[in-house]
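Hypothesis: this fold can be encoded by more than one sequence.
Test: take the structure tokens below, design a sequence, compare later.
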């Protein structure tokens, strides 16, 4: 067969992905397990492009689904996309402004939403094709979009049911307000950045006294909305003031001085201005003390009419003017520079303003408790288990969820308001109504807000499988594939997505949405920094696939994935694993001429040689490790096992040991060795397939027999008790240990790689000695030994040789006639003098009484250790010099 001298990913990847897709290999098919295994893809934004984090996400999922498919499960990997309300609307708004100088308000809502759908059809979903470049084996027939009609049906049912139960309600509450998007946004959409600011120390008068309270704030403009001053009731400095009134500067508003244990007596001045309308903590204080809420902001972030002469100014400009006024009035007594965290919108980059607004909320208290219980009862298990603490940290003290957003793109809230003044009924409906259910009139309007994107994606485990439409559920085989098996995602959305899926799915089905949650690492650059445009340190997965091949890139990501929190991705490491992929290709090129001599099944075990039993034993042990580690999501352990087996056992040792046999004249031995080589290589490509599917499928096409199907649906290798050969493994291990030691001795005296050498091995173990004698061809192949003598340890030591001793053998490499002995003696003598000088320096410290008395114990121990190392080295050099003489 014709094989190129180097592996070319571009010639292989498109070919096999097309065959997998056209052959419907990604669709679920019943296997030997008789069980289903379902994975949900975390839906990427419709605006998204593949980045390194996505690449890790889909690599670990695809490795898992390919593994389970080969293990005989009926596998389903469901793909899809999220409509990404804020992100998508922002993209289209920016586009129409750049092309038409218009905003969304120049269109009706219906016209603008049509523009977004048009953009989605033309430009959205590029990331799905990019995922295919990575080799993902999703069943694309199941692909869904969170704005599909079937998913909208699920959204409306959940909303209406919870609304009728009183768990969804409308209330004035403090939320994250984005003044550019002019919408509430979730905590997940807020980025906290360090900003250079200041602490402004202000004096608030206490009514009816000469006392003044010193208060420090980073936002002096918010004093316009102050409705209290708080102190800790246990603070002796201020106890006598609780119940009195403080006077707010500028507005001269009288507000109560209240006692609240939230105030930290050790932090700041001990007195806190309370602005319930514009600070999350202050809002909670306001709720506890029934304080008035004053909103000082317009929706665009400027100050409103409450601010009087400062109305219409941005917070930044108003702050400058207010600070100047306070300073002139003697109210500002000092100003200190201060770096603090300020929330910014991750889309708009605007400073987020806490603001009290009428929003829709979901009461999650009971649902959160049920989600916690499910994990505590091990109905859902996190890998690694430590991530459960992250899950619990929010759900054990949950806040009710603000589910409304002031956008046009998204699932519009299915609440309707009758416009009949005599009726004014408000109701929720799963279907678009034609009239008011109370008065019958058809004059009504729908709530203009849309639902938080996390609301629809929180239904993902159910809605992707057709719920609640019974016909669609049967079509998508809901009862077979739900609950899903494993969720693979990053730790940054445990709060925002994993928890919500748990709560909503338990609420509406009584089942957990998934049995396992594997939390993968966050991909960072090679220095451990977060990848960002500003740093210019991002890695383009598609470029990595083009440069190194998808298999190399995938293997790199998988090899770095286990229970770690961060994966530092270095392109050079990808290059290193490309060498591994090429190594496999070249190994196949070596064995491919022998395939014609190979049988389809292994010969009788009793006929196998020691080395053949050893390689089957090592393959079997690797198979065991890979099966066990994949079940525990230890991709790193699995990759490490196959990497070491291929490199150290198969290529470096077994192939080299096979060359004398394959180049010999013993037809039976050639046939047997060819059969073992083929068997082992078939297992290698099967074990490796989940991580590097393209090259393995290509190699399988040369290895399979005529009736066998593609590798993607072959059985994954299993551990076989009959291939446990401990004695043969032990013998080969000591043999290879001696080979390594001979190679190291050769390197130590610079013997040329092709130079033949004479070796003596002194050993007392008769079994080992016999095996060494039987392995003369092996020593010749692996260490270029032309003459090997095996003796007892009490035998005379050969002259002019260099020696190495291990636990079972003393190995002597004879040097006479191989190297210039005098040159080696001169070199070793120089090394000896150098090391003696170093030893003298260290020894002087040990002879110094002051050093021994005053130096820390660990330092003395380290110096003693170094002295001992130099003594051993000096002794070894002296012995070598003596042997050379």
């Amino acid at each position: 067969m014709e094989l190129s001298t180097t592996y070319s990913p571009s010639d292989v990847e498109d070919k096999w992905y097309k065959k997998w897709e056209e052959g419907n290999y990604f669709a679920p098919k019943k296997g030997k397990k008789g069980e289903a295994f379902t994975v949900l893809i975390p839906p990427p934004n419709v605006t998204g492009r593949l980045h390194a984090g996505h690449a890790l996400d889909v690599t670990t999922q695809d490795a898992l689904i390919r593994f389970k498919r080969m293990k005989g499960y009926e596998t389903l990997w469901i793909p899809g996309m999220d409509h990404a309300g804020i992100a998508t609307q922002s993209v289209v708004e920016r586009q129409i402004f750049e092309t038409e100088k218009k905003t969304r308000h120049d269109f009706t809502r219906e016209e603008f939403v049509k523009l977004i759908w048009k953009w989605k059809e033309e430009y959205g979903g590029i990331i799905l094709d990019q995922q295919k470049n990575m080799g993902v084996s999703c069943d694309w027939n199941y692909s869904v979009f969170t704005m599909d009609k079937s998913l909208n049906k699920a959204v409306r049912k959940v909303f209406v049911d919870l609304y009728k139960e009183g768990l969804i309600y409308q209330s004035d509450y403090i939320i994250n307000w984005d003044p550019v998007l002019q919408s509430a946004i979730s905590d997940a959409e807020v980025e906290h950045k360090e900003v250079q600011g200041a602490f402004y120390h202000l004096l608030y008068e206490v009514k009816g006294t000469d006392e003044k309270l010193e208060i420090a704030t980073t936002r002096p403009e918010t004093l316009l909305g102050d409705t209290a001053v708080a102190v800790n009731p246990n603070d002796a400095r201020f106890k006598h003031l609780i119940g009195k009134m403080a006077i707010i500067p500028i507005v001269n508003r009288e507000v109560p001085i209240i006692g609240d244990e939230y105030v930290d007596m050790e932090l700041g001045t001990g007195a806190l201005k309370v602005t319930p309308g514009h600070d999350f903590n202050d809002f909670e204080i306001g709720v506890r003390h029934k304080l008035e809420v004053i909103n000082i902001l317009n929706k665009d972030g400027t100050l409103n009419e409450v601010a009087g002469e400062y109305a219409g100014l941005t917070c930044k400009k108003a702050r400058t003017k207010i600070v100047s006024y306070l300073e002139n009035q003697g109210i500002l007594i000092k100003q200190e520079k201060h770096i603090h965290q300020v929330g910014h919108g991750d889309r708009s980059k605007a400073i987020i303003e806490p603001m009290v607004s009428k929003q829709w909320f979901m009461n999650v208290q009971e649902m959160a408790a049920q989600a916690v219980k499910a994990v505590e009862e091990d109905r859902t298990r996190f890998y690694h288990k430590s991530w459960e603490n992250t899950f619990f940290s929010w759900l054990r003290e949950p806040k009710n969820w603000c589910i409304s957003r002031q956008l046009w793109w998204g699932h519009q809230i299915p609440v309707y308001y009758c416009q009949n003044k005599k009726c004014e009924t408000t109701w929720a409906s799963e279907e678009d109504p034609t009239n008011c259910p109370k008065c019958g009139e058809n004059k009504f309007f729908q709530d203009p807000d849309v639902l938080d994107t996390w609301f629809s994606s929180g239904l993902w485990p159910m809605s992707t499988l057709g719920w609640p439409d019974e016909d669609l559920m049967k079509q998508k085989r809901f009862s077979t594939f739900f609950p899903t098996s494993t969720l693979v995602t990053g730790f940054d959305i445990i709060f925002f997505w994993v928890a919500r899926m748990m709560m909503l799915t338990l609420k509406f089905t009584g089942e957990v949405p998934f049995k396992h949650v594997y939390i993968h690492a966050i991909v960072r650059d090679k220095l451990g920094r977060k990848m960002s445009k500003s740093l210019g340190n991002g890695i383009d997965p598609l470029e990595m696939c083009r440069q190194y091949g998808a298999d190399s890139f995938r293997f790199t990501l998988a090899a770095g994935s286990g229970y770690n929190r961060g994966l530092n991705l270095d392109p050079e490491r990808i290059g290193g694993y490309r060498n591994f992929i090429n190594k496999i290709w070249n190994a196949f090129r070596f064995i491919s001429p022998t395939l014609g001599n190979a049988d389809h099944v292994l010969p009788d075990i009793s006929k196998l040689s020691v080395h053949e039993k050893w390689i089957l034993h090592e393959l079997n042990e690797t198979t065991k490790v890979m099966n066990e580690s994949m079940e525990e999501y230890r991709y790193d352990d699995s990759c490490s096992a196959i990497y070491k087996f291929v490199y150290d056992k198969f290529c470096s040792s077994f192939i080299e040991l096979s060359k004398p046999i394959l180049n010999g004249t013993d037809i039976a031995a050639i046939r047997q060795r060819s059969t073992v080589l083929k068997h082992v290589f078939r297992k290698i490509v099967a074990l490796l397939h989940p991580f590097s599917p393209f090259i393995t499928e290509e190699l399988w096409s040369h290895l399979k027999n005529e009736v066998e199907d593609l590798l993607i649906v072959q059985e994954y290798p299993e551990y076989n008790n009959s291939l446990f050969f401990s004695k043969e493994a032990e013998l080969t291990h000591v043999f290879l240990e001696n080979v390594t030691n001979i190679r190291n001795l050769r390197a130590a005296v610079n013997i040329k790689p092709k130079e033949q050498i004479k070796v003596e091995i002194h050993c007392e173990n008769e079994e080992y000695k016999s095996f060494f004698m039987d392995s003369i061809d092996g020593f010749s192949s692996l260490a270029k030994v032309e003459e090997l003598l095996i003796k007892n340890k009490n035998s005379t030591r050969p002259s002019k040789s260099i020696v190495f001793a291990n636990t079972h053998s003393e190995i002597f490499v004879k040097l006479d006639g191989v190297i210039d002995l005098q040159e080696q003696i001169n070199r070793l003598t120089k090394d000896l003098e150098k090391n003696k000088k170093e030893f003298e320096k260290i020894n002087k410290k040990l002879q110094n009484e002051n050093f021994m008395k005053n130096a820390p114990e660990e330092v003395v121990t380290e110096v003693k250790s170094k002295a001992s190392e130099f003594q051993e080295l000096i002794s070894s050099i002296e012995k070598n010099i003596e042997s050379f003489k």
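The radius of gyration is 36 Å. The chain has 28 helices and 29 strands.
Hypothesis status: open.
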